[in-house]
Inverse folding.
């Protein structure tokens, strides 16, 4: 292992626990990392090392591993020798400063007399607190807890070695056991004997210590983005942030939302430098039949291996921040950073990172981790390109509340060059050329302030949107054209060109539908698409086994919440009927509108009706097959739906056309030829009213959100309220219909 210079003043390789013990006793600080030990009673403080298992709760037999995955169960249950953290450093005792962390992780802050801060993070997590109360102490909680075995108990240790080599602003993490020391005070009962990661918390320079890499200032994510929104005095090192995100991809760390970052200013550089935190999800392995199947619908369930999986799940939690910062950079700027990481993370660096783990972990999993890291390093350029293309399709350009000059210049090749300048700064806050083969939509958010924007050149295929924001704006499209302006203030002045569009309708940003951890920081998704497969299986006596498949394709669009269009296509075959059934349902939303266009199409050859004759004296004394008739049915229903009052009220209506053919020889329906037998077609119209006052229980937040259940992806079930659903339809005497008929049906539930 290598002890970080800033902790000890030394930089010595240590491969054995005995060597480490000598060194750490000499400097008075034991620093290492590991998973939590469950109910383990803490060893006395005077002991130097102990043998512990990270956790006993993840033991599983072969069938369990097959169904729910092996993950890192062998590592969790392996006995390893770890040093006991000494609460005495050269400057004096480490004093607990408070319990921190999220709902799952136990985190203890420790303060040194010289002003430095240290952090101890228990690794074995308890997910029960994030589950709804109704799911606590159930099999669901057991399943969620079991999947903690997918996390590498020493992941933060290896990651910290690799990240330092990759050129990130980082800190080393080490594996320790917290002592059973009275100095822990009120935290003794919870933390004594716990195994976890220990590191120096990044603080700016102050009297008595040099600070984290000499940083003059360190802030959190909320303060950073508040500053970025306010003015252009604050800039981010976007190349450094890209380096950190490519490293996330390399180690498979998907949990990279805003809260996982801090930001530092270093001497000589006015830009904010990213400090990635919390590497609990590095190298995560969700294996087994269950997690693999679930990953289709929950893409963050990654399985670390030598090849990159879909970029969707690997990067999902970082999308919102990535779409704010990474649009600054073209692929020509991405590529050299990816190549530089490849060059820095050599085989020797990988070996050094693996050897930082306990010897038992190296013996059990070192070969696999070595293979996976080398494979992902070698393919990092291909993985980076996939993510670049994922982000490049629809791009947000973020201005600020300062007074800015913005230009959007069309090139002869259809490219679009966007530049944002602040008079107080010599360099532009944003400057990038977008290529039509990569980008289809560019959205410039001017925010507040008195801004000027000018568009020039012949418009290409890229759609240009300008969201004006508050303040006095002068928006000039006279030398361009086809720009779409969205006005939020009466002070905005638009100078139109050919094809200029102006939308001054009020728009209120809806609740987030992301399902992210930081819901307050994540706006509703308005870009990209999702494709989710649907397996179909069923059995009925009349049709036999029904086997089929389908998919739901969802497009997200600008000001089209919660989606722009949704298409559901299914098809399957019935073994007994020996016929097919297929259906399509599509919905299309207009921009900033409550009106949806819908289309329903259906073909089925497996519909079954039973006809027992006419009147009250009918009999069923013959075989069931004699009264059964199969039909072929085709139906089309184009319609419109209006959604009001936050979608609590939905009114739909439109025409429909239906055709079916019933023909079964030697059956009662064929012998008596009732009305509707044979070929029959009809047209009609319908109207539907839904009143949905149900309240949705959030599976994400574990509380009643007070939101309508409909289209709420975070909801599990209604907790209160009512649903009214009424449909009426009418068919005139057209085609094969002899006389007008109508029907009305409805339901009320609560």
């Amino acid at each position: 292992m290598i002890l970080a210079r800033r902790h000890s003043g030394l930089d010595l390789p240590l491969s054995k626990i005995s060597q480490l013990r000598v060194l750490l006793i000499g400097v008075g600080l034991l620093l290492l990392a590991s998973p939590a030990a469950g109910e383990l009673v803490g060893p006395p403080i005077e002991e130097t090392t102990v043998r512990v298992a990270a956790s006993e709760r993840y033991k599983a037999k072969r069938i369990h591993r097959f169904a729910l995955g092996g993950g890192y169960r062998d590592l969790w249950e392996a006995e390893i020798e770890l040093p006991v953290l000494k609460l005495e450093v050269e400057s004096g005792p480490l004093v607990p400063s408070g319990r921190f962390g999220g709902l799952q992780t136990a985190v203890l802050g420790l303060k040194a007399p010289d002003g430095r801060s240290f952090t101890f993070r228990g690794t074995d997590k308890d997910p029960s607190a994030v589950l709804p109360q109704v799911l606590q102490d159930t099999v669901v909680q057991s399943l969620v807890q079991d999947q903690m075995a997918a996390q590498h108990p020493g992941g933060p240790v290896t990651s910290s070695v690799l990240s330092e080599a990759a050129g990130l602003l980082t800190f080393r993490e080490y594996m320790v056991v917290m002592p059973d020391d009275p100095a822990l005070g009120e935290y003794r009962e919870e933390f004594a004997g716990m195994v976890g990661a220990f590191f120096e918390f990044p603080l700016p320079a102050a009297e008595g210590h040099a600070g984290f890499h000499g940083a003059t200032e360190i802030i959190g994510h909320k303060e950073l983005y508040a500053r970025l929104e306010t003015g252009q005095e604050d800039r981010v090192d976007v190349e450094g942030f890209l380096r950190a995100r490519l490293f996330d991809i390399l180690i498979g760390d998907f949990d990279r939302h805003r809260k996982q970052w801090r930001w530092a200013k270093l001497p000589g550089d006015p830009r904010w430098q990213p400090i990635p935190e919390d590497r609990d999800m590095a190298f995560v392995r969700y294996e087994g039949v269950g997690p693999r199947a679930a990953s289709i619908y929950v893409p963050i369930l990654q399985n670390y291996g030598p090849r990159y999986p879909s970029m969707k799940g690997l990067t999902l939690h970082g999308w919102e921040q990535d779409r704010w910062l990474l649009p600054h950079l073209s692929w020509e700027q991405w590529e050299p950073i990816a190549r530089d990481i490849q060059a820095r993370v050599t085989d020797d660096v990988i070996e050094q990172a693996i050897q930082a783990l306990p010897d038992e972990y190296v013996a059990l999993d070192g070969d696999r981790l070595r293979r996976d890291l080398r494979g992902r390093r070698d393919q990092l350029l291909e993985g980076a390109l996939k993510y670049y293309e994922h982000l490049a399709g629809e791009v947000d350009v973020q201005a600020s509340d300062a007074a800015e000059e913005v230009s959007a210049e069309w090139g002869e090749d259809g490219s679009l060059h966007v530049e944002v300048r602040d008079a107080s700064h010599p360099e532009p806050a944003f400057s990038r050329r977008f290529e039509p083969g990569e980008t289809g939509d560019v959205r410039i958010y001017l925010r507040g302030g008195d801004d000027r924007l000018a568009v020039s050149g012949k418009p290409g295929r890229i759609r240009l949107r300008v969201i004006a924001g508050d303040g006095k704006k002068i928006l000039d499209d006279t030398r361009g054209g086809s720009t779409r302006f969205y006005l939020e203030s009466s002070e905005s002045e638009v100078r139109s060109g050919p094809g200029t569009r102006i939308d001054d309708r009020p728009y209120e940003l809806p609740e987030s539908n992301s399902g992210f951890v930081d819901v307050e920081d994540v706006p509703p998704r308005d870009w990209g698409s999702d494709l989710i497969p649907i397996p179909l299986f069923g059995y009925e006596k009349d049709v036999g086994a029904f086997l089929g498949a389908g998919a739901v394709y969802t497009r997200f669009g600008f000001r089209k919440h919660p989606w722009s269009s949704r298409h559901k296509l299914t098809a399957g075959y019935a073994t007994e009927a020996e016929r097919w059934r297929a259906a399509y349902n599509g919905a299309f939303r207009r921009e900033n509108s409550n009106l949806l266009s819908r289309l329903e199409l259906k073909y089925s050859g497996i519909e079954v009706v039973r006809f027992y004759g006419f009147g009250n004296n009918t009999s069923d004394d013959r075989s069931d097959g004699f009264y059964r008739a199969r039909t072929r049915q085709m139906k089309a229903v184009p319609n419109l739906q209006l959604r009001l009052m936050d979608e609590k009220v939905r009114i739909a209506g439109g025409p429909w056309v239906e055709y079916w053919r019933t023909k079964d020889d030697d059956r009662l329906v064929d012998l008596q030829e009732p009305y509707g037998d044979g070929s029959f077609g009809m047209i009609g119209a319908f109207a539907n009213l839904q009143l949905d006052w149900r309240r949705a229980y959030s599976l994400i937040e574990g509380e009643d959100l007070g939101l309508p259940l409909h289209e709420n992806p975070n909801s599990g079930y209604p907790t209160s309220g009512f649903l009214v659903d009424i449909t009426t339809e009418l068919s005139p005497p057209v085609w094969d219909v002899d006389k007008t008929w109508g029907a009305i049906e409805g339901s009320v539930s609560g």
